[in-house]
């Protein structure tokens, strides 16, 4: 498989890993859009949000749980943070392995920016 995130999970490509458990890996984004910008990925390869099946619901919920836990650990949970998942090309997805962006440490505006 030629998936960037699978290679990071397998330690074939280095990353600045900030959290890991049996199901999830989180690492700092190499092109941060905020003072804190992490990617939270399931260790199971699922290409897009459209590919999530009913049996994956607990795993996808674990991504959100991990984001909240990391926001608390980093000290910006109370002030607020942004969590984003992109789907397919027009949605801005560039790596086809579902992942959640956790961004914090600054005020965000709407529309996203």
From TrEMBL:
Lineage: superkingdom: Bacteria
Motif, Histidine triad motif: chain positions: 97-101
EC number(s) reported in the record: 3.-.-.-
Keyword annotations: Hydrolase
Keyword Hydrolase: yes
Pfam families in the cross-refs: HIT (PF01230)
Record-annotated HIT domain positions: 4-113
InterPro entries xref list: Histidine_triad_CS, Histidine_triad_HIT, HIT-like, HIT-like_sf
Enzyme class: hydrolase
Alphabetized GO MF terms: hydrolase activity
Active site per UniProt: 99
Protein name (record): HIT-like protein
Source organism (scientific name): Halomonas lysinitropha
Lineage start: Bacteria, Pseudomonadati, Pseudomonadota, Gammaproteobacteria, Oceanospirillales
